[in-house]
């Protein structure tokens, strides 16, 4: 043992030389070839450049490193420090995570109206997590189909879901199957599913346009993509590192307007790829969106009698 000591000290030297530099391990619940992830990797590069001697983020990888629906658990337990995910992927940690899809107020508004603080109270208490920043918003979800419908009736159709869509699609009569994004292409190719729920964007990242005939309009809810951190790790950060990380993450969140133009372009690309839009008459469309919201909040309040109503006050408009 005595002989080991100098070796251990030598191993410590790089850390000492850089003072208190902290390295954080980050995993993505979204596949690495998704644009979201590439955009986040660019952000990580910026953090690493500016954060020398303070904070470095080590991007471990996507679902091949940790499966999509396990990333939340890995952050909760501290197997990794940071997760790039969406609430729907970690309802196995707490049901509240999926409620963020019901946001009508923006992340910026939630920082002002107490929403961000409430989210962090819940995330800390129930998931041992810090919700660092929301970096994807202003993005509706849609129902995509390979069979034509003329009314919001999914009877006899098998639809790929995550918790985001479960109650709404089931209320329309769908039979549902939960899969991670990485499994949708094969399910479509094999005809195992007749459609899927997904945001207006990011079909092309995974080549789903090749296997998709229709998109149902209008969209509903608001896709949330965020950075979450293990709470113990967050609390243990030196003040300088925490301030730096929060500033960088806030800077990233403040670019969310980006998604508005991006999404318009994605809708255009879908049309160019031959994806046809299914629409209903005005009254049916209105009911469709209202139903989604009503069903979403009913499920939220049922799954979290403790926080559902409180979240509604800061998320809904
Ligand atoms: O459909 C999904 O995989 C899903 O729930 C989701 C949530 C946010 C962004 C992208 C996808």
Short summary:
Helices cover 42% and strands 19% of the residues. With 317 residues, the chain is α/β, with parallel strands linked by helices. The chain has a six-stranded mixed beta sheet with strand order 7-6-8-5-9-11. Strands 2-1-3-10-4 form a five-stranded mixed beta sheet.
Describe the structure.
The protein is an alpha/beta fold. It is 42% helix and 19% strand. It contains twelve helices and eleven strands. It has helices at residues 4-17, 35-50, 71-77, 107-112, 115-127, 166-171, 184-189, 231-236, 239-253, 258-272, 282-303, 308-315; strands spanning 22-28, 55-61, 82-85, 129-136, 141-145, 158-161, 175-178, 195-199, 214-220, 225-230, 276-278. It has a six-stranded mixed β-sheet with strand order 7-6-8-5-9-11. A five-stranded mixed β-sheet has the order 2-1-3-10-4. The protein is globular. The N and C termini lie far apart (63 Å). It binds benzoyl-formic acid. Benzoyl-formic acid binds at residues 86, 88, 162, 164, 181, 197-199, 223, 225.
Kindly list the characteristics that best describe this protein.
317 residues, six-stranded mixed sheet, five-stranded mixed sheet, 42% helix, disordered N terminus, binds benzoyl-formic acid
């Amino acid at each position: 043992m005595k002989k080991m000591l100098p070796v251990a000290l030598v191993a410590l030297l790089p850390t000492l030389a850089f003072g208190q530099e902290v390295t954080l391990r980050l995993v993505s619940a979204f596949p690495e070839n998704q644009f979201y992830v590439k955009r986040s990797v660019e952000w990580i590069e910026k953090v690493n450049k500016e954060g020398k001697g303070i904070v470095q983020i080590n991007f471990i990888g996507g679902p091949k490193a940790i499966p999509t629906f396990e990333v939340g658990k890995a952050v909760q337990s501290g197997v990794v420090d940071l997760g790039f995910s969406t609430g729907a992927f970690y309802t196995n940690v707490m049901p509240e995570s999926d409620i963020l899809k019901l946001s009508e107020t923006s992340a910026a508004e939630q920082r002002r109206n107490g929403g961000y603080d409430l989210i962090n109270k819940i995330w800390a208490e129930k998931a041992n997590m810090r919700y660092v920043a929301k970096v994807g918003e202003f993005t509706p979800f849609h129902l995509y189909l390979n069979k034509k419908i003329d009314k919001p009736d999914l009877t006899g159709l098998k639809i790929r879901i995550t918790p985001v869509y479960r109650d709404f699609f089931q209320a329309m009569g769908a039979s549902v199957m939960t899969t991670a994004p990485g499994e949708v292409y094969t399910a479509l190719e094999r005809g195992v599913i007749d459609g899927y729920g997904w945001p207006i964007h990011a079909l092309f990242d995974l080549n789903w346009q090749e296997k998709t005939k229709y998109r149902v309009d209008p969209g509903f809810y608001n896709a949330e993509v965020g950075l979450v951190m293990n709470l113990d790790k967050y609390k243990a950060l030196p003040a300088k590192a925490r301030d730096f990380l929060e500033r960088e993450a806030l800077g990233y969140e403040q670019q969310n307007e980006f998604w508005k133009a991006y999404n318009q372009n994605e809708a255009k690309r879908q049309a160019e790829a031959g994806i046809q839009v299914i629409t209903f008459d005005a009254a049916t469309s209105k009911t469709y969106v209202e139903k989604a919201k009503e069903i979403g909040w009913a499920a939220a309040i049922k799954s979290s009698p403790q926080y559902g109503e409180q979240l509604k006050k800061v998320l809904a408009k």
